[in-house]
Design brief:
By secondary structure, the protein is of the alpha/beta class. Helix content is about 50%, strand content about 10%. A five-stranded mixed β-sheet has the order 1-3-2-4-5, sandwiched between helices. The longest helix has 17 residues, at about 140-160. The chain is globular and about 65 Å long. About 35% of the residues are buried.
Protein backbone atom coordinates (compact mmCIF):
# COMPACT_ATOMS: atom_id res chain seq x y z
CA UNK A 1 0.00 0.00 0.00
CA UNK A 2 1.33 3.45 -0.83
CA UNK A 3 1.06 4.65 2.76
CA UNK A 4 3.48 2.04 4.04
CA UNK A 5 7.20 2.79 4.16
CA UNK A 6 9.40 0.14 2.64
CA UNK A 7 10.93 -2.19 5.22
CA UNK A 8 14.71 -2.40 4.96
CA UNK A 9 15.86 -5.97 4.38
CA UNK A 10 17.82 -6.08 7.66
CA UNK A 11 14.61 -5.39 9.61
CA UNK A 12 12.88 -8.59 8.54
CA UNK A 13 14.10 -10.37 11.65
CA UNK A 14 13.80 -9.54 15.33
CA UNK A 15 14.29 -5.88 16.19
CA UNK A 16 17.58 -5.19 17.96
CA UNK A 17 17.74 -2.01 20.01
CA UNK A 18 20.97 -2.93 21.75
CA UNK A 19 22.71 0.07 20.19
CA UNK A 20 20.41 2.45 22.01
CA UNK A 21 21.38 3.88 25.37
CA UNK A 22 20.29 1.47 28.12
CA UNK A 23 18.24 2.69 31.03
CA UNK A 24 20.45 3.44 34.08
CA UNK A 25 20.98 0.46 36.36
CA UNK A 26 18.26 0.12 38.94
CA UNK A 27 16.03 2.71 37.29
CA UNK A 28 12.35 2.10 37.88
CA UNK A 29 9.81 2.61 35.12
CA UNK A 30 8.72 6.23 35.13
CA UNK A 31 5.17 7.10 36.11
CA UNK A 32 2.86 5.43 33.65
CA UNK A 33 5.62 3.58 31.82
CA UNK A 34 5.29 -0.08 30.85
CA UNK A 35 5.91 -2.60 33.58
CA UNK A 36 3.65 -1.05 36.22
CA UNK A 37 0.64 -3.10 37.14
CA UNK A 38 -2.79 -1.62 37.52
CA UNK A 39 -5.07 -2.24 40.45
CA UNK A 40 -8.24 -4.31 40.24
CA UNK A 41 -10.63 -3.93 37.36
CA UNK A 42 -9.99 -2.07 34.10
CA UNK A 43 -9.09 1.51 35.04
CA UNK A 44 -9.74 4.48 32.79
CA UNK A 45 -6.61 5.87 31.25
CA UNK A 46 -4.51 6.18 28.13
CA UNK A 47 -2.31 3.67 26.37
CA UNK A 48 -0.31 6.42 24.65
CA UNK A 49 3.20 7.26 25.87
CA UNK A 50 4.32 10.72 24.75
CA UNK A 51 7.99 11.66 24.60
CA UNK A 52 9.14 8.08 25.08
CA UNK A 53 12.81 7.72 25.99
CA UNK A 54 15.17 5.09 24.65
CA UNK A 55 14.78 3.21 27.93
CA UNK A 56 10.99 3.29 27.54
CA UNK A 57 11.33 2.01 24.00
CA UNK A 58 13.45 -0.95 25.09
CA UNK A 59 10.80 -1.89 27.67
CA UNK A 60 8.05 -1.53 25.09
CA UNK A 61 9.78 -3.85 22.63
CA UNK A 62 9.83 -6.48 25.38
CA UNK A 63 6.14 -5.81 25.98
CA UNK A 64 5.42 -6.53 22.30
CA UNK A 65 5.18 -10.24 23.14
CA UNK A 66 1.88 -9.40 24.89
CA UNK A 67 0.35 -6.61 22.78
CA UNK A 68 1.23 -4.88 19.50
CA UNK A 69 3.34 -1.79 20.10
CA UNK A 70 2.99 1.12 17.68
CA UNK A 71 6.03 3.38 17.58
CA UNK A 72 5.53 6.82 16.04
CA UNK A 73 8.94 8.03 14.92
CA UNK A 74 7.82 11.62 14.97
CA UNK A 75 9.18 14.58 13.03
CA UNK A 76 7.80 17.67 14.84
CA UNK A 77 8.85 19.94 11.95
CA UNK A 78 6.52 18.03 9.62
CA UNK A 79 2.78 18.83 10.05
CA UNK A 80 1.94 15.29 9.01
CA UNK A 81 3.49 14.04 12.23
CA UNK A 82 0.95 15.88 14.41
CA UNK A 83 -1.85 14.68 12.14
CA UNK A 84 -0.69 11.11 12.70
CA UNK A 85 -0.77 11.69 16.47
CA UNK A 86 -4.29 13.12 16.27
CA UNK A 87 -5.45 10.02 14.38
CA UNK A 88 -3.57 7.35 16.29
CA UNK A 89 -3.95 8.38 19.93
CA UNK A 90 -7.76 8.11 20.18
CA UNK A 91 -7.81 4.99 17.99
CA UNK A 92 -5.29 3.23 20.24
CA UNK A 93 -7.06 4.28 23.46
CA UNK A 94 -10.36 3.01 22.02
CA UNK A 95 -8.92 -0.52 22.06
CA UNK A 96 -8.58 -0.47 25.86
CA UNK A 97 -5.13 -1.97 26.30
CA UNK A 98 -4.93 -4.26 23.27
CA UNK A 99 -2.52 -1.79 21.64
CA UNK A 100 0.13 0.65 22.85
CA UNK A 101 1.38 3.79 21.10
CA UNK A 102 4.75 5.36 21.90
CA UNK A 103 5.83 8.68 20.38
CA UNK A 104 9.57 9.23 19.92
CA UNK A 105 11.01 12.55 18.71
CA UNK A 106 13.14 11.15 15.91
CA UNK A 107 14.49 14.57 14.98
CA UNK A 108 15.91 15.03 18.45
CA UNK A 109 17.08 11.41 18.64
CA UNK A 110 18.02 10.20 15.13
CA UNK A 111 19.67 7.14 16.66
CA UNK A 112 16.19 5.66 17.07
CA UNK A 113 15.51 6.12 13.36
CA UNK A 114 18.73 4.28 12.59
CA UNK A 115 17.70 1.41 14.86
CA UNK A 116 14.55 0.99 12.76
CA UNK A 117 16.53 1.29 9.53
CA UNK A 118 14.80 4.51 8.45
CA UNK A 119 16.35 7.70 7.17
CA UNK A 120 13.67 10.16 8.28
CA UNK A 121 10.29 10.50 9.95
CA UNK A 122 7.47 10.63 10.38
CA UNK A 123 6.82 6.92 10.26
CA UNK A 124 4.70 4.53 12.31
CA UNK A 125 6.07 1.03 12.84
CA UNK A 126 4.28 -1.75 14.70
CA UNK A 127 6.30 -4.26 16.71
CA UNK A 128 4.87 -7.76 17.21
CA UNK A 129 6.91 -10.07 19.45
CA UNK A 130 10.02 -8.10 18.56
CA UNK A 131 9.26 -8.11 14.83
CA UNK A 132 8.89 -4.68 13.13
CA UNK A 133 6.04 -4.14 10.68
CA UNK A 134 5.73 -0.82 8.77
CA UNK A 135 2.26 0.71 9.11
CA UNK A 136 2.09 4.36 8.03
CA UNK A 137 4.19 7.30 6.98
CA UNK A 138 1.38 9.78 6.33
CA UNK A 139 -2.17 10.40 7.58
CA UNK A 140 -4.99 8.25 6.22
CA UNK A 141 -8.81 8.45 6.55
CA UNK A 142 -10.13 7.23 9.89
CA UNK A 143 -11.87 4.26 8.25
CA UNK A 144 -8.62 3.13 6.67
CA UNK A 145 -6.80 3.48 9.98
CA UNK A 146 -9.45 1.35 11.70
CA UNK A 147 -8.98 -1.31 9.03
CA UNK A 148 -5.20 -1.22 9.45
CA UNK A 149 -5.47 -1.64 13.22
CA UNK A 150 -7.96 -4.49 12.83
CA UNK A 151 -5.56 -6.24 10.46
CA UNK A 152 -2.70 -5.65 12.86
CA UNK A 153 -4.62 -7.14 15.78
CA UNK A 154 -5.63 -10.13 13.65
CA UNK A 155 -2.01 -10.74 12.66
CA UNK A 156 -0.97 -10.38 16.29
CA UNK A 157 -3.57 -12.91 17.46
CA UNK A 158 -2.40 -15.40 14.84
CA UNK A 159 1.07 -15.11 16.34
CA UNK A 160 -0.01 -15.52 19.97
CA UNK A 161 0.14 -11.80 20.78
CA UNK A 162 -3.33 -11.25 22.16
CA UNK A 163 -3.04 -9.90 25.70
CA UNK A 164 -4.02 -6.61 27.28
CA UNK A 165 -2.01 -4.22 29.43
CA UNK A 166 -2.98 -1.60 32.02
CA UNK A 167 -3.03 2.09 31.06
CA UNK A 168 0.29 3.88 30.73
CA UNK A 169 -1.15 7.07 32.21
CA UNK A 170 -4.33 9.04 32.97
CA UNK A 171 -6.92 9.78 30.27
CA UNK A 172 -5.61 12.20 27.68
CA UNK A 173 -6.99 15.72 27.84
CA UNK A 174 -9.90 16.08 25.46
CA UNK A 175 -10.17 12.34 24.86
CA UNK A 176 -13.66 11.16 24.08
CA UNK A 177 -15.28 9.86 27.22
CA UNK A 178 -12.53 11.16 29.51
CA UNK A 179 -15.06 13.10 31.59
CA UNK A 180 -18.20 11.15 30.80
CA UNK A 181 -18.03 8.77 33.73
CA UNK A 182 -17.18 5.10 33.74
CA UNK A 183 -17.73 3.16 30.53
CA UNK A 184 -19.80 -0.02 30.56
CA UNK A 185 -17.68 -2.98 31.54
CA UNK A 186 -17.19 -5.84 29.12
CA UNK A 187 -18.87 -9.10 30.09
CA UNK A 188 -16.60 -10.98 32.49
CA UNK A 189 -14.67 -13.94 31.19
CA UNK A 190 -15.42 -17.38 32.60
CA UNK A 191 -13.23 -17.91 35.69
CA UNK A 192 -10.74 -20.29 34.08
CA UNK A 193 -10.48 -18.10 30.98
CA UNK A 194 -9.77 -15.10 33.20
CA UNK A 195 -7.15 -17.10 35.08
CA UNK A 196 -5.53 -17.97 31.76
CA UNK A 197 -5.64 -14.36 30.55
CA UNK A 198 -4.09 -13.13 33.78
CA UNK A 199 -1.31 -15.69 33.39
CA UNK A 200 -0.70 -14.63 29.78
CA UNK A 201 -0.53 -10.97 30.78
CA UNK A 202 2.08 -11.88 33.40
CA UNK A 203 4.11 -13.96 30.95
CA UNK A 204 3.26 -17.22 32.73
CA UNK A 205 2.47 -19.19 29.59
CA UNK A 206 2.49 -22.66 31.16
CA UNK A 207 0.04 -21.40 33.80
CA UNK A 208 -2.23 -20.17 31.02
CA UNK A 209 -2.04 -23.57 29.33
CA UNK A 210 -2.99 -25.28 32.57
CA UNK A 211 -6.04 -23.03 33.05
CA UNK A 212 -7.20 -23.64 29.48
CA UNK A 213 -6.74 -27.40 29.89
CA UNK A 214 -8.94 -27.34 32.98
CA UNK A 215 -11.53 -25.34 31.06
CA UNK A 216 -11.48 -28.00 28.33
CA UNK A 217 -11.84 -30.75 30.93
CA UNK A 218 -15.04 -29.03 32.07
CA UNK A 219 -16.27 -28.40 28.52
CA UNK A 220 -14.48 -30.29 25.71
CA UNK A 221 -16.44 -28.21 23.15
CA UNK A 222 -14.94 -24.92 24.40
CA UNK A 223 -13.38 -23.65 21.16
CA UNK A 224 -11.92 -20.52 22.79
CA UNK A 225 -10.14 -22.60 25.42
CA UNK A 226 -8.75 -24.95 22.77
CA UNK A 227 -7.41 -22.02 20.72
CA UNK A 228 -6.09 -20.29 23.83
CA UNK A 229 -4.28 -23.43 24.92
CA UNK A 230 -2.60 -23.77 21.52
CA UNK A 231 -1.48 -20.13 21.49
CA UNK A 232 -0.23 -20.28 25.07
CA UNK A 233 1.65 -23.45 24.18
CA UNK A 234 3.38 -21.69 21.29
CA UNK A 235 4.49 -18.88 23.59
CA UNK A 236 5.64 -21.34 26.26
CA UNK A 237 7.71 -23.30 23.74
CA UNK A 238 9.33 -20.33 22.03
CA UNK A 239 9.97 -17.96 24.95
CA UNK A 240 13.15 -19.78 26.16
CA UNK A 241 14.49 -20.40 22.64
CA UNK A 242 17.64 -18.89 21.20
CA UNK A 243 16.47 -18.20 17.65
CA UNK A 244 19.89 -18.39 16.01
CA UNK A 245 20.67 -21.75 17.60
CA UNK A 246 17.26 -23.16 16.73
CA UNK A 247 17.54 -22.11 13.09
CA UNK A 248 21.09 -23.42 12.81
CA UNK A 249 19.99 -26.80 14.16
CA UNK A 250 17.06 -26.85 11.77
CA UNK A 251 19.42 -26.27 8.85
CA UNK A 252 22.00 -28.87 9.90
CA UNK A 253 19.55 -31.56 11.08
CA UNK A 254 16.84 -31.75 8.40
CA UNK A 255 15.82 -35.26 9.47
CA UNK A 256 15.27 -34.37 13.16
CA UNK A 257 11.57 -33.83 13.70
CA UNK A 258 11.99 -31.71 16.83
CA UNK A 259 14.51 -29.46 15.10
CA UNK A 260 12.03 -28.83 12.28
CA UNK A 261 9.12 -28.29 14.70
CA UNK A 262 11.12 -25.73 16.67
CA UNK A 263 11.91 -23.68 13.56
CA UNK A 264 8.28 -23.89 12.46
CA UNK A 265 7.18 -22.53 15.84
CA UNK A 266 9.55 -19.57 15.51
CA UNK A 267 8.29 -18.92 11.97
CA UNK A 268 4.65 -18.84 13.06
CA UNK A 269 5.49 -16.59 16.00
CA UNK A 270 7.34 -14.23 13.64
CA UNK A 271 4.57 -14.16 11.04
CA UNK A 272 6.32 -16.43 8.52
CA UNK A 273 3.33 -18.77 8.43
CA UNK A 274 3.80 -20.15 4.92
CA UNK A 275 7.45 -21.02 5.67
CA UNK A 276 6.39 -22.90 8.82
CA UNK A 277 3.67 -24.86 7.04
CA UNK A 278 5.90 -25.70 4.06
CA UNK A 279 8.71 -26.89 6.34
CA UNK A 280 6.52 -29.41 8.15
CA UNK A 281 4.66 -30.59 5.04
CA UNK A 282 8.02 -31.20 3.35
CA UNK A 283 9.22 -33.17 6.41
CA UNK A 284 6.03 -35.24 6.46
CA UNK A 285 6.37 -36.10 2.78
CA UNK A 286 9.95 -37.31 3.26
CA UNK A 287 9.62 -39.17 6.57
CA UNK A 288 7.20 -42.10 6.97
CA UNK A 289 6.67 -43.64 10.38
CA UNK A 290 6.25 -42.24 13.88
CA UNK A 291 8.07 -38.99 13.14
CA UNK A 292 5.62 -38.25 10.34
CA UNK A 293 2.71 -38.43 12.78
CA UNK A 294 4.54 -36.23 15.30
CA UNK A 295 5.05 -33.57 12.65
CA UNK A 296 1.47 -33.92 11.38
CA UNK A 297 -0.04 -33.46 14.84
CA UNK A 298 2.11 -30.39 15.42
CA UNK A 299 1.16 -28.94 12.04
CA UNK A 300 -2.53 -29.39 12.85
CA UNK A 301 -1.96 -27.48 16.10
CA UNK A 302 -0.34 -24.65 14.13
CA UNK A 303 -3.35 -24.65 11.78
CA UNK A 304 -5.54 -24.01 14.84
CA UNK A 305 -3.35 -21.09 15.92
CA UNK A 306 -3.39 -19.44 12.50
CA UNK A 307 -7.09 -20.20 11.95
CA UNK A 308 -9.06 -22.32 9.51
CA UNK A 309 -10.35 -19.19 7.77
CA UNK A 310 -6.83 -18.12 6.84
CA UNK A 311 -6.19 -18.97 3.16
CA UNK A 312 -2.67 -20.13 4.03
CA UNK A 313 -4.18 -22.85 6.19
CA UNK A 314 -6.44 -24.05 3.37
CA UNK A 315 -3.52 -24.21 0.92
CA UNK A 316 -1.37 -26.10 3.41
CA UNK A 317 -4.10 -28.58 4.25
CA UNK A 318 -4.27 -29.56 0.56
CA UNK A 319 -0.49 -29.94 0.47
CA UNK A 320 -0.62 -32.05 3.63
CA UNK A 321 -3.23 -34.36 2.12
CA UNK A 322 -1.02 -34.88 -0.93
CA UNK A 323 2.00 -35.55 1.29
CA UNK A 324 0.09 -38.14 3.31
CA UNK A 325 -1.63 -39.94 0.46
Amino acid sequence: MSQQPAMPSHLRGALDLSALKPAPAGQQPRQGAPGQQAGGGVPAGSWVLDQATQGDLQQLIQLSSRVPVLVHLAAPSNPASQQLDDLLAPAVDAHGGRLILARVDAEADPQVLAAFGLAAGPAVVAVLAGQPVPVLNQPVPAEQLDQLLDELLAAAAQNGVSGTVPPLGPPREGAAGADSGPEPEAPPLPPLHQEAQDALDAGRYEGAQDAYRRALAENPADAEAKLGSSRAGLLARTSPMDADSVRERGATEPDDVQAQIDVADLDVLGGHVEDAFHRLVRFIAAHPGAERNTAREHLVDLYAIVGDQDPRTAVSRKALAMALF
